[in-house]
Write a structure and sequence with these properties.
The complex is a heterodimer. Chain A is 0% helix and 55% strand. By secondary structure, chain A is an all-beta fold. In chain A, 41% of the residues are buried. Classes of the chains: A mainly beta, B mainly beta.
Chain lengths: 111, 119
């Protein structure tokens, strides 16, 4: 079973700062997703990446899929308090296993 | 669309009692998933259904847990008897596609969760 490790586990920053969170595995993924979960809510899909080296942008969020399709990163520019939440990566490997979630990065952006 | 609807939102029960969590998936979605989320273990898949049929229940912790989907618009997750270590947030989710293999990235839609506390 693939294992997705996310880092850091916790991140507390000031409004306006930039940050990057990582999702790493020893497995190769056919696709990888990023979700954001706000307190008291379920996870909501932000993006899906499927091609090695792919970069997708969603306003101030930039998602990158590693060339080898084993890792991904999420970069947030000029973080805002509204970005606060739990960021989860989830991957589907090539062996037919079910979508697996990482442990998440809990982000707090202070005003 | 109303999204995935779960009930109850919060439940506090005593150890040994039966707990039933309910879910109404998004209409037209063929796949329904039950997840459990805790700080220690993160988001874990318990079981999923395709067209009301359980496909993989390998994530169900033990015999105290059971799930049913009697029709396309309703599913239950039952814990009997409940134990304090079952305390968690239980999410139901639905999707038009199954997230394996050549999964194209169809969205999995999560409900707001059922917060269970067993004392």
């Amino acid at each position: 079973t693939q294992l997705l490790e996310q880092s850091p586990q916790f991140l507390s920053i000031q409004e306006g700062e930039n940050l990057t969170v990582y999702c790493n595995s020893s497995s190769v993924f056919s696709s990888l997703q990023w979700y954001r979960q706000e307190p008291g809510e379920g996870p909501v899909l932000l993006v899906t990446v499927v091609t090695g080296g792919e970069v997708k942008k969603l306003k101030r969020l930039t998602f990158q899929f590693g060339d080898a399709r084993k890792d991904s990163s999420l970069h947030i520019t000029a973080a805002q308090p509204g970005d606060t939440g739990l960021y989860l990566c989830a991957g589907v490997d090539n062996a037919g296993n079910m979508l697996t979630f990482g442990g998440g990065t809990r982000l707090m952006v202070k005003p | 669309d109303a999204g995935v609807i779960q009930s109850p939102r919060h439940e506090v029960t005593e150890m040994g009692q039966e707990v039933t969590l309910r879910c109404k998936p998004i209409s037209g979605h063929d796949y329904l998933f039950w997840y459990r989320q805790t700080m220690m273990r993160g988001l874990e898949l318990l079981i999923y259904f395709n067209n009301n049929v359980p496909i993989d229940d390998s994530g169900m912790p033990e015999d105290r847990f059971s799930a049913k989907m009697p029709n396309a618009s309703f599913s239950t997750l039952k814990i009997q008897p409940s134990e304090p270590r079952d305390s968690a947030v239980y999410f139901c989710a639905s999707s038009p596609d199954v997230p394996t293999g050549t999964f194209s990235g169809n969205t999995i839609y999560f409900g707001e969760g059922s917060w269970l506390t067993v004392v």
